[in-house]
Amino acid sequence: MRYGRRLGIGSALSVGVVAVSALTLAPMATAVTPDTATISFDCGIYGSGTATLTATQDGTAATISVSTSAISAPIDVGAGSVDSTLTLTDNGTGTSTFAGNSNPAIPAGSPVSTGPLDGTVAAGDSLEAKSLKVVVMGITVTCNATSAQAPGPFVF
Fold it and tell me: H or E segment at 2?
């Protein structure tokens, strides 16, 4: 009887040690807060409106997707054909850019969505959108922020 109880306690301790070791060796999860923000853009003759920014982080790699009513597609735009660069202030002083050409197909008359745009971040970076440059079929549209990002900057 004693042997069975010792074996049971030993097994339980082994399982506990393995669980603690797994937690110790697991990579630390990183998160950006907030993960979604809104901002207003003025895109000159192409329009103005709000944009929703959605950020994700995986270590030092981060992505931001943008959906904005400030720009509408004049014709059907194929997936992956919008080149975009989002410029953000970095901790209120420097700048950081996120870029890419990944976008869903956009039907004529629909708001432009672009991303995920790729960028690099460091722990403690506080990024707030300032401008968005979109190139569609050779036409460049530059949008400038006309409001602060709400609820606030992305903090990585």
Answer: helix 2-25
Q: Quick check: 110 and 72 in contact, CB under 8 A? A: yes
Residues 150 and 93: beta-carbon distance below 8 Å: no
Average pLDDT of span 18-42: 69
**How far apart (Å, rounded) are the C-alpha atoms in residues 62 and 54?**
11
141 three-class SS: strand
State how far the Cα of 133 lies from the Cα of 44, in Å rounded to an integer: 12
- Whole-angstrom CA distances from 11 to 22, 125, 129, 152 are 17, 45, 54, 50
Q: Return the amino acid letter for 47.
A: G
For residue 19, name the pLDDT band (cuts at 50, 70, 90). Answer: very low
Collapsing DSSP to helix, strand or coil, 86 comes out as: strand
Task: For residue 2, name the pLDDT band (cuts at 50, 70, 90).
Answer: low
CA 105 to chain CA mean position, Å: 19
Single pTM value for the model: 0.79
Judge contact between 147 and 42, C-beta under 8 A. no
